[in-house]
């Protein structure tokens, strides 16, 4: 009788597992480099810029994961665990910087690049700072040039905090678009416009 009960309980637990779908792991990703475009001979040599700091926000762990230069391969391994990687200019820039440290083609990762989507909709690029400012009333704490200077000065902790903030802004902009179905930007004439977006994770995976 006990054995039958155990079997029943086990089958009931399996049924519950089947009914409750696993929450997808979304990784919000950004990195900072050691070198500028000028340092490496132009924007055609992004792959030579080298990782200074990489930061990932994990939607399941609810925390930032930080990776320094010598941990680039661990960063790649982390990105491989994602159901979806979300970033801003991640396909054209971040992946190109990181690719020399990867044994896989990073372009094969399931990725949603907000910049690519927005450019496709509008026909021109908008910065993360611009979109976050008008959508979330949030601004980046610094810029890439300052980060490069910090690297030269060995101020890695400051780069980490800056990159964390960038990732948080990236995450919050995506989540706002997912929830509300739009993000805001300002036209050249100064008009604030709502841009419709369809950023449902389930559809992007």
Describe what you observe in this structure.
This protein has 205 residues and is α/β, with parallel strands linked by helices. It has a single domain, classed as Ribonuclease H-like superfamily/Ribonuclease H (Nucleotidyltransferase, domain 5, 2-Layer Sandwich). Helix content is 44%, strand content 19%. It has 8 helices and 7 strands; from the N terminus they run H-E-E-E-H-E-H-E-H-H-H-H-E-E-H. A 5-stranded mixed beta sheet has the order 3-2-1-4-5, with helices on both faces. Strands 6-7 form a two-stranded antiparallel ribbon. Helix 5 crosses helix 7. It is globular.
Topology, element by element:
Elements: H1 2-19, E1 26-33, E2 51-58, E3 63-68, H2 72-79, E4 84-87, H3 90-98, E5 111-113, H4 114-122, H5 128-135, H6 144-152, H7 156-180, E6 182-186, E7 192-196, H8 201-204
